[in-house]
Design a protein that fits this description.
GO molecular function, one term: metal ion binding
Organism: Pyrococcus kukulkanii
Keywords: Encapsulin nanocompartment
Number of strands: 0
Pfam families: Rubrerythrin
Number of helices: 3
Structural class: mainly alpha
Largest sheet: none
Shape: flat
Helix content: over 70%
Radius of gyration: 17 Å
Oligomer: single chain
Protein name: Bacteriocin
Strand content: under 5%
């Protein structure tokens, strides 16, 4: 998933804005992977209480996606514009109106 493990990067200065944006993208990717992982495991578990915990943890990861995405959109306003454009295109082509 990650090209480099962040803790292996030697740094003598703070991350640049571009590097922070990449770190946020990696964090979002990791959270999306975790959501898939926990939900797939939950679907295989028969015990309702244990299955509930896996889904609950998956939902917490979904919140993390939102947190990291909010930061990414703040740091990369161009991405926010492309996302809005993508929402408009989907609405024009399908009638589906995405809302956040």
């Amino acid at each position: 998933m990650l090209a480099e493990k962040p803790f292996l990067l030697s740094r003598n200065k703070p991350l640049s804005k571009r590097e922070i944006a990449q770190a946020l993208r990696w964090a979002i990717e990791a959270e999306l992977d975790a959501i898939s992982f926990y939900e797939q495991l939950a679907e295989l578990i028969e015990d309702e209480k244990i299955r509930h915990v896996f889904y609950d943890v998956a939902n917490e990861e979904k919140e993390h996606v939102g947190e990291f995405l909010a930061l990414l959109l703040e740091i990369d306003p161009e991405l926010a514009e492309y996302i809005k454009k993508g929402f408009r295109e989907v609405e024009e082509e399908t009638g589906i109106k995405a809302k956040l």
